[in-house]
Design goal:
It contains ten helices and ten strands. With about 325 residues, it is of the alpha+beta class. A six-stranded mixed sheet has the order 6-8-5-9-7-10. A four-stranded mixed sheet has the order 1-4-2-3. Helix 3 links the parallel strand 2 and strand 3. It binds adenosine-5'-diphosphate and magnesium ion (MG). Belongs to the thiamine-monophosphate kinase family.
Length: about 325
C-alpha cells in the first residue's frame, strides 16, 4: 500500500516541473512542491489571475469516468477561467481526496493532468492529499498585464456578442445518457463532455479587443446574464445563430435549444466587442484556429435581460434555466 508521501512523490511531485521565473530578480525566485508554501510572483507590471474549481464525484462526473479524462478535465475547467480573463496560465495547486490509493487510477489521472499542464506550460506547485470521497480541487494562477483582464462588467451598448467554437455537444451527450433523447449521430459528445479544450490562446488574443468576457460552463443563457447584470445592460440574441455541431443541429428544435442555449459544460468563451473589432476578430479566429460566431448585440438601453429572436428576427419567448447546483432536477 502506498503511503501518502510516496503517492504524492510518485504521481505528482516527481512529475511536476519547477515554476519558471517571471523576472530576473534573484530574490523573487519561485518555489514549487516540497515546502510549506509555494512562492510565485507575476512578471513586473502584471496582475495575478487566480481561480479555483472543484470536481465532485456524482455531481460533476460519473464514478466510472476514465481517470485520464478526469485529470484532463479537472485542470481544463480551471484553465478555462484563466482564458476567460485573458490571462496566461503559469502554475496550479491540486487538492485531492481519494477513497483509496489505486495505482493504475492515479497513473492515468496524473497522465491526463500533466499532458494538459505541459501543453500550457503550467507547473504543479503544491497541493494537499487526503483520503475521503473522491474530490478534486484545483487552483490555477495566471498572469495578465495590469488593467488588461477581460472582466464581466465591461460590456457596452452597441457591442456585438460573440461565442467561440460550438455549444451543446456535452449537453447532447448527457441527455443521451439520461435517456432524454437518442444519442445524436456523428457527435463526439463524449469528447466534448470529458475532454474540453480551454481557449487559452483565444483569451490572450482578445486582450485589448474584447470588452467583457466569460467562459460558458453553466449554459449560454445563464452565463451571458452574468455579463449583462455586472455590466448593467440588455442583450438581443439570435437563438438560431448560436453555433452548434451538425449532430446537435439535427436534434428536435426544443432539444437543440436546450443543448445550445442552456446546456453547460461547453467551456467556450462568450464575449462582447465593439463593431469596429469585427475585422480584427476574423484575423484572431484564423490565428488561434477557433471559429468565432456573432450571435447578438448589446442594446442601447434596458434592464439586464436577454431578448431572444429566431433567424427571421421574430421574438421568441424561451424559459431557459442554466445549471444551478442548488436548483437542479
Ligand atoms: P503540509 O502538511 O505542510 O500542508 P503536506 O505534508 O500536506 O504539507 O505536503 C507536502 C508537500 O507536498 C507540500 O509542498 C504540498 O504542497 C505538496 N503536495 C501535497 N499533496 C499534493 C498534491 N496532490 N499535488 C501536488 N503537491 C502536493
Ligand atoms: Mg506545512
Amino acid at each position: 500500500m502506498l503511503s501518502e508521501f510516496s503517492l504524492i512523490d510518485r504521481f505528482f511531485a516527481r512529475r511536476a516541473t519547477a515554476p519558471s521565473p517571471r523576472h530576473d530578480d534573484e530574490a523573487a525566485r519561485p518555489l514549487g512542491i516540497g515546502d510549506d508554501c509555494a512562492l510565485i510572483a507575476p512578471p513586473i507590471g502584471h496582475q495575478l489571475a487566480i481561480s479555483t474549481d472543484m470536481l465532485v464525484e456524482g455531481r460533476h462526473f460519473f464514478p466510472d469516468v476514465d481517470p485520464y479524462a478526469l485529470g484532463h478535465k479537472a485542470l481544463a475547467v480551471n484553465l478555462s477561467d484563466i482564458a476567460a480573463m485573458g490571462a496566461a496560465p503559469h502554475a496550479f495547486t491540486l487538492a485531492l481526496a481519494l477513497p483509496r490509493a489505486d495505482e493504475a487510477w492515479l497513473q492515468a489521472f496524473s497522465d491526463g493532468l500533466f499532458a494538459l499542464a505541459e501543453r500550457h506550460d503550467c507547473a504543479l506547485i503544491g497541493g494537499d492529499t487526503t483520503s475521503g470521497p473522491l474530490n478534486i480541487c484545483i487552483t490555477v494562477f495566471g498572469d495578465v498585464p495590469q488593467g488588461a483582464a477581460l472582466r464581466r462588467d465591461a460590456a457596452r451598448p452597441g457591442d456585438d456578442i460573440w461565442v467561440s467554437g460550438t455549444l451543446g455537444d456535452a449537453r447532447a451527450g448527457l441527455g443521451a445518457i439520461r435517456g432524454e433523447w437518442r444519442a445524436p449521430e456523428g457527435c463526439d459528445w463524449r469528447r466534448a463532455l470529458e475532454r474540453p479544450e480551454p481557449r487559452v490562446a483565444l483569451g490572450i488574443a482578445l486582450r485589448g479587443v474584447a470588452h467583457a468576457a466569460l467562459d460558458i460552463s453553466d449554459g449560454l443563457a445563464g452565463d451571458l446574464m452574468h455579463i449583462l447584470k455586472r455590466s448593467g445592460v440588455r442583450a438581443a440574441v439570435d437563438a438560431d445563430a448560436v453555433p452548434c455541431s451538425d449532430a446537435v443541429r439535427a436534434l428536435p428544435e426544443a432539444a437543440r435549444r436546450q443543448c445550445t442555449l442552456a446546456g453547460g459544460d461547453d467551456y467556450e468563451l462568450c464575449f462582447t466587442a465593439p463593431v469596429e473589432a469585427r475585422a480584427a476578430l476574423a484575423t484572431i479566429a484564423t490565428n488561434v484556429k477557433v471559429p468565432l460566431t456573432r450571435i447578438g448585440t448589446i442594446e442601447p438601453s434596458g434592464a439586464p435581460g436577454i431578448a431572444w429572436r429566431d433567424a427571421s428576427g421574430a421574438p421568441l419567448s424561451l424559459t431557459l434555466q442554466g445549471f444551478d447546483h442548488f436548483h437542479a432536477d
